[in-house]
TrEMBL record:
It comes from the Bacteria. The chain crosses the membrane at residues 20-42, 48-68, 89-117, 129-147, 154-175, 195-213, 234-254, 281-310, 331-351, 357-376, 388-406, 412-430. GO terms for molecular function: transmembrane transporter activity. Keywords: Cell membrane, Membrane, Transmembrane, Transmembrane helix. It is a multi-pass membrane protein. InterPro entries: AA/rel_permease1, APC_superfamily. This is APC family permease. It holds the Pfam family AA_permease_2. It is found in: Cell membrane. One of its GO terms (cellular component) is plasma membrane.
Length: 452
């Protein structure tokens, strides 16, 4: 292998601003626009409340991520935290469950990109469009995290400009009498529309939109000068920026959508913009979301899941080949190939069931979050110098929030999560059995050799 090493070190090339923009590229400032139909429908017309509850849940988890990243900087993120504080088995389960999220999110984004292109090119084949999107994003990520971070920075800046423009157009329409005709508190709370189960189900979707902060933690081994404190700062900065953008955007959208007929949750933003500003505006937004958002948005997703696979391969909890690092570009190229192939397969299988895919995503992330909080309690909670807020109160509140949302996930999402967990346990049992068998065979061979 002239251009690769097995279990090599990842390239340290990232600064604080790189981490912030990487996280923003993962979450995507335009997420409330593309997710508007899903969140509005599931929440029963209370999208602002769903995003606020999502931000509250994620605040506790982001705080625990920030604490653990400083203590144990690892590309494996939650897998590394749980392994160091609770042992290999807990580490494997946490890493396995977060992988479900990291594999489904890119698949969901691939499918959304294809939907955007279909708006531009009617009657095009969605499967072919998904494959093209995957090929482009994989090609960019192949050249390493430094290239990915530069593309992410440009994408985020352009997204902020477009979100401001779209929100401005929608705000002008509100002032002209569209929707509720004003910025009311209706998207936050309406006694007649409030249904706790529906709002919490929508919150589980909103949590997915905030997931850039945990992806930042997977880059802890690629920070310049080994200064892992910047990872925690970047995580909290990312959450502050995204929650502000999401709440403001959904506040405007939530007041504009009453009375608007939803034909397809995946295309609501295009239909709404066309109704207000004409078909040209909807087409322009579709091009932008596809070329400037869709492709760059998948880049950090591919990078994040590859880092978790790399760390698990390095520790041999998954096949060791996943720990191979490209010597020239400094990226875990085998893990990236494997994760991209899996996400591509999921996207192709679920390309006509995107709404179901959106609901399935959060179960893996929420399960992983529980392990992050438990890691804080196990490592810091019993130490004499513990800080009661960040080391005890935050993880306990975080666990309560995550379990509440998990309990309100759909039966389909819980079935997918349970099936994934059983598959992981079966694989773990197979690895343990095969390891013991090989050791036993080695001992027998030694005995035969020494006692012919």
């Amino acid at each position: 292998m002239s251009t690769a090493s097995t279990g090599g070190a990842l390239k340290r090339a990232l600064s604080y601003s790189d981490l912030v923009f990487y996280g923003l590229a993962y979450t995507a400032p335009v997420a409330p626009l593309t997710m508007a139909g899903f969140v509005w429908t599931v929440s029963g017309g209370l999208p602002v409340l769903a995003y606020l509850l999502g931000a509250l849940c994620v605040y506790f988890t982001a705080s625990s991520y920030a604490v653990m990243t400083s203590a144990f900087p690892s590309a494996g993120s939650v897998y590394g935290f749980a392994s160091r504080t609770m042992g290999p088995f807990a580490g494997f389960i946490s890493g396995w469950m977060i992988l479900l999220d990291y594999l489904l999110v890119p698949a969901f984004t691939y499918a959304l990109c294809a939907v955007g292109i279909e708006t531009l090119i009617p009657h095009s084949d969605r499967a072919t469009l998904i494959v093209l999107t995957v090929a482009v994003t994989f090609a960019v990520n192949w050249f390493g995290i430094a290239v990915t971070s530069r593309v992410s920075l440009v994408s985020v800046v352009l997204q902020l400009v477009v979100v401001a423009a779209v929100v401005g157009v929608f705000g002008y329409a509100l002032a002209g009498g569209a929707g509720s005709g004003a910025l009311t508190l209706a998207p936050l709370y309406q006694p007649g529309k409030f249904n706790g189960a529906h709002v919490l189900a929508a919150t589980s979707i909103c949590v997915m939109a905030y997931l850039g902060f945990d992806a930042v933690s997977t880059l802890a081994e690629e920070v310049r000068d080994h200064d892992t404190r910047v990872v925690g700062r970047a995580i909290m900065t990312n959450l502050a920026i995204t929650s502000s953008i999401f709440v403001l955007t959904t506040w405007v959208l939530g007041n504009l959508m009453p009375g608007f007929a939803i034909h397809d949750p995946a295309t609501v933003i295009y239909e709404l913009l066309e109704a207000i500003s004409g078909k040209g505006a909807a087409i322009a937004l579709a091009w932008f979301l596809t070329l400037v958002v869709g492709v760059p948005n998948v880049l950090p997703m591919q990078a994040g899941v590859a880092r978790v696979l790399f760390a698990m391969g390095r520790d041999r909890t998954l096949p060791g080949v996943l720990a191979k690092v490209h010597r020239r570009h400094g990226n875990p190229y085998v893990a990236m190939i494997v994760s991209t192939a899996v996400s591509l397969t999921i996207a192709l299988l679920m390309r006509n069931r995107i709404d179901d895919l959106a609901i399935f995503i959060s179960v893996g992330a929420l399960s992983g979050f529980v392990f992050v909080h438990l890691s804080v309690l196990m490592h810091f909670g019993r130490q004499p110098g513990r800080r009661w807020w960040s080391h005890v109160a935050v993880p306990l509140c975080g666990i309560a929030a995550v379990l509440t949302i998990l309990s309100h996930l759909s039966a389909g999402a819980l079935t997918v999560g349970g099936g994934w967990l059983l598959a992981g346990l079966a694989y773990r049992a197979y690895r343990v059995f095969s390891t013991r068998t090989s050791r036993g065979s080695g001992s027998n061979r030694d005995a035969i050799t020494t006692n012919p």
